[in-house]
Amino acid sequence: MKIAIVGTGYVGLVTGACFAEMGTNVYCIDIDVEKINNLNKGVMPIYEQGLEDLVKANTAAGRLKFGTDLVAVLNDSDIVFSAVGTPPDENGNADLRYVLNVARTVGKHLNKYMVFVTKSTVPVGTAEMVRAAIREEQQKRGVQIPFDVVSNPEFLKEGAAIDDFMRPDRIVVGVDSDKAKTLMEQLYKPFTLNGHPVIFMDIASSEMTKYAANAMLATRISFMNDIANLCERVGANVHEVRKGIGSDPRIGARFLYPGCGYGGSCFPKDVKALIKTASEHRYEMTVLRAVEEVNERQKELLYHKLVTRFAHHLKGRTVALWGLSFKPQTDDMREAPSLTLIEKLLAAGCIVKAYDPVAMTEARRLLGDRITYAGSIYETVQDADAILLVTEWKEFRLPDWPAIKQAMKTPIVFDGRNIYDKAELQMLEFEYYGLGTR
Fold first, then answer.
1. Given Cys at both, which of 113, 270, 289, 356 links 324, Cβ 3.0 to 4.6 Å?
2. Residue 93 pLDDT > 80, yes or no?
3. Which residue stretches of 281-348 are H helix?
4. Are residues 403 and 332 in the same domain?
């Protein structure tokens, strides 16, 4: 089987590499010439654990190829995946221009039956828009070449995307024809051999499933952050509360960890898009509006704790910022809490010295020289007034606290992910401020 994947961003590149690993011949297409040239040289546009090795191995084997011309490979492909970006526009809608551009290209040049798969996260109704765009271009040509449109949303966690794709919890496929279903069954057969389920459903339900899944996870995060903030005020311990409610099988323990807000390419965008979709259908997503509000407030929480500790006297203080990416194991800084925090700190006159294991290049691209970039966490703490832990990278878990204390002006830790032991740090004469505890 041969497939084409349009878009070599996070979703498209991971999808292409993993399908190639399973023996499928894959063309990865992108209009960014520099990106394609780099991929042909083995240079990755993103950091994702295990991805570089997978891409290089399958490129060498001839199963994974990169190019800029969809038309050149279109009629040699059985399936075309659209994995292009769907960023939110100024009104919160998912911007579908790139998806529809791919559909129009297919309509202009398709000469045989093919399945068009939307892999990007798209609102309910997008498949019908894609279908209409392809048909419109065919009508201009005076042809009626059969095709099917399928929804196949991704459920990849950044930092664990390869494992998620190879050993998925579920594979969701929205179809409305037996022919398309058969072709998708063949494509995913290597994955189902290991018992991973393919859930076939109608297209609208498939499109909604992706948004509903991310909205639920975002809701759990914001709910737990709200509970943690209340715990601080009433004298409860969020660690104990989390264990108490997580032991209920109806609730479960996952995504019940308080933090300084969620970010990334999915949760913020998908929550906004679902709210907007509901509004267009004259329905108010009250819960999700609250989820969004709590998250935006949570991104400023460490700043407000710092303000309180220093009695609003922050000008000229040096802050050591540990972690810049929105989560560990990725260099993605889209909607990252660190960006909100840095803007607040700079506006207050702070000197920010930051370190992240993989996101420093991306941080420089976004922030320029407005902050100081350190080579390690130990460089950030020299003469620092406080440490702000933002991203829970593993290498941050067991630092040399005595050396850090000696280097700091005032030994204070604001733990935005609750990864440190308060009692241990207090024994070492640090001031410690976590989330959801006193």
1. 356
2. no
3. 286-298, 301-309, 337-347
4. yes
Query: CA-CA-CA-CA torsion for 156, 159, 163, 169, nearest 10 degrees?
Result: -40
- Is 34 contained in some domain? yes
The 3-state secondary structure of 69-96 reads CHHHHHCCCCEEEECCCCCECCCCCECC
Q: How far apart are CA 77 and CA 105, in angstroms?
A: 14
Q: What is the DSSP letter of 302?
A: H
Q: What are phi and psi of 432, to 5 degrees?
A: -125, 130
CATH of the domain at 263: 1.10.1040.10
In a domain, residue 191? The reply is yes
* Residue at which a domain ends, from 244, 263, 297: 297
Do 240 and 309 lie in a common domain?
no
Show the CA angle centred on residue 418, arms to residues 222 and 253, nearest 5°.
55
Same domain, 169 and 253: no
Question: Which residue range forms the structural domain that includes residue 348?
Answer: 299-433
How far apart, in whole angstroms, are the C-alpha atoms of residue 81 and residue 120?
9
What is the pLDDT, as a whole number, of residue 99?
Answer: 96
User: What kind and span of H or E run contains 351?
Assistant: strand 351-355
| Whether the predicted pLDDT of 116 surpasses 90 | yes
Which residue type occupies 414?
A: F
CB-side neighbour CA atoms (13 Å) of 237: 5
Same-domain pairing of 171 and 283 = no
- For the chain, the domain total comes to 3
Read off the DSSP letter of residue 164.
H
What's the rounded Cα separation, in Å, for the pair 75 and 163?
31
pTM: 0.89
206 falls within a domain = no
Task: Choose among 60, 50, 45: nearest CA to 7.
Answer: 45
Crossing angle, helix 97-109 and helix 126-141, to 10 degrees?
30
**28 and 16 in contact (C-beta within 8 Å)?**
yes
The pLDDT of residue 318 is above 80: yes
Q: What is the chain's percent helix, strand, coil content, to nearest 5? A: 45, 15, 40
Closest CA to 268 of 246, 244, 288, 254: 288
Residue 15: exposure state from Cβ atoms within 10 A (0-12, 13-18, ≥19): buried
- Give 26-51 pLDDT, tens digit per residue: 999 999 999 999 999 999 998 898 99
Strand partners, 319: 352, 386
Q: Is the dihedral of CA 344, 345, 346, 349 positive or negative?
A: positive
C-alpha span between 242 and 232 (Å, rounded): 14
Give me the catalytic one of 28, 231, 266, 350.
Answer: 266
Q: Which pair of tokens denotes residue 419?
A: 């990864």
